[in-house]
Amino acid sequence: VERRVAAAHLRQGGDVALQAPIDQHTHRVLRAAALELVQDERRRRFPTALHAGEPGRSVRHVEDPPLGDAGLRADVVLSLLRQAAVMGPRPCLWLTRPGELSPHDDDLRWLGPTTWACASLGSPLGLVVVTRRGWFDPVSDVRREWRRLRRRVAP
User: Fold this and answer.
1) How far is residue 116's CA from residue 114's CA, in Å, rounded to a whole number?
2) Can you tell me the distance from the alpha carbon of 29 to that of 57, in angstroms, rounded to the nearest whole number?
3) 0.85 cut: is pTM over it?
4) d(CA 83, CA 96)
5) What CA–CA distance (Å, rounded) separates 31 from 111?
6) With contact defined as beta carbons under 8 Å apart, do 18 and 137 qualify?
7) Distance CA 3, CA 124 (A)
8) What pLDDT, in 10s, does the model give residues 131-146?
9) Are 131 and 107 in contact (CB under 8 A)?
10) What are phi and psi of 118, to 5 degrees?
11) Distance separating alpha carbons of residues 51 and 61, to the nearest angstrom
């Protein structure tokens, strides 16, 4: 089951947040990110990873062990965004982790550094969290959930 909502980016207190309705490109990218996680990650518990770009053409940082310093996390985000900008014209930024679609400590640890890094590059991006069940924006709580996500078959 998929709730159809489409989006735009909005600044909320300095953070960039998705707002409904989201645009078709963002929907496609985030659905593909959730599908990639479902198909590629077989473990029940896996380390948090930050991705920049588009699924299939992205760079990522696997947090194992977790980075304790917000400054290091901001440097990681800057590096990923710069690399992703070379790969495509409109990169996205998402965090994959196990668990449910609700705010988690890892989401909040990465939110500040990603907001700072995106602002320093003049990028309208914000952090989106992706799990096996869907995705959500930790700032605006715009989300998509699926009971069972499957690849679409072209007619």
Assistant:
1) 5
2) 11
3) no
4) 19
5) 21
6) yes
7) 24
8) 998 999 999 989 988 8
9) no
10) -65, -40
11) 7
- How does DSSP assign the chain, residue by residue? ------BEEEEETTEEEEESSBPHHHHHHHHHHHHHHHHH---SS---EEEEEETTEEEEEE-SSPP--HHHHHHHHHHHHHHHHHH-SS-EEEEE-SS-SS--HHHHHHHHHHHHHHHHTT-----EEEETTEEE-TTT--EEE-SS--PPPP-
Measured CA to CA in angstroms, residue 97 lies from 5, 21, 30, 110 at distances of 23, 25, 14, 12
Would you state the structure tokens that stand for residue 84, as one six-digit string? 């992703």
What is the percent of the chain with per-residue pLDDT over 90, rounded to a whole number?
46
- The tokens of 69 are what? 């310093």
- Residues 1-52 have pLDDT tens digits of 333 333 344 444 445 678 888 888 888 899 899 999 988 888 889 999 999 9
At 83, list the tokens.
Answer: 């690399």
Residue 11 confidence (pLDDT) = 42
Q: Tell me the CA distances in angstroms from 17 to 52, 116, 144, one per residue in order.
A: 16, 13, 14
